[in-house]
Design a protein that fits this description.
The chain is an all-beta fold. It is built from no helices and nine strands. It has one domain. The strands form two sheets. It has a six-stranded antiparallel β-sheet with strand order 1-6-5-4-2-3, with no helix packed on it. Strands 7-8-9 form a three-stranded antiparallel β-sheet, with no helix packed on it. It is globular and about 55 Å long. The termini are far apart.
């Protein structure tokens, strides 16, 4: 299941692996299977970006702050539709996140009827979920 929310208070209180990049920090905070506190913020601070994964619950959270508003995506990887094709992607991390780590994502493609393709079924990307680091986040800057 893929859900979009816009309030940090709606994020489940789970243990996450990933990173949170606060606006008043030069580099992101790395989490290794620990809880994140989304309720206690300084008035001059916000989350620029975050990618979090709760391994026990198989839930991925992506947070982006754009033009003063949060865009939060919650993906429950236990509820993947039957017609979905999942592809794993590995990307180099920003050097401020880690010099040696890579970020792991799962990308979901689903089959839809497309009127622009003579009503044939086509695969379209539906979501991308962060699922951790290549080395568990241990080699951080």
């Amino acid at each position: 299941m893929h859900k979009i929310i816009n309030k940090l208070s709606e994020i489940p209180d789970l243990k996450f692996t990933g990173y949170i990049w606060y606006s008043n920090n030069a580099k992101p905070k790395i989490l290794e299977n620990e809880k994140a506190n989304f309720s206690n913020f300084d008035k001059n601070q916000f989350i620029i970006e975050a990618n979090l994964f709760a391994e026990n619950e198989n839930i991925s959270i992506n947070i982006k702050h754009i033009d003063g508003k949060y865009y939060i995506s919650i993906i429950e990887l236990n509820n993947i539709p039957e017609n979905a094709e999942i592809i794993e992607k590995v990307y180099l991390a920003n050097p401020t996140v880690s010099k040696t780590e890579k970020l792991i994502f799962k990308q979901c493609w689903q089959e839809f009827v497309d009127e622009n393709c003579e009503n044939m079924k086509v695969l379209k990307p539906t979501w991308t979920a962060f699922t951790g680091f290549t080395n568990g986040g241990k080699e951080n800057v």
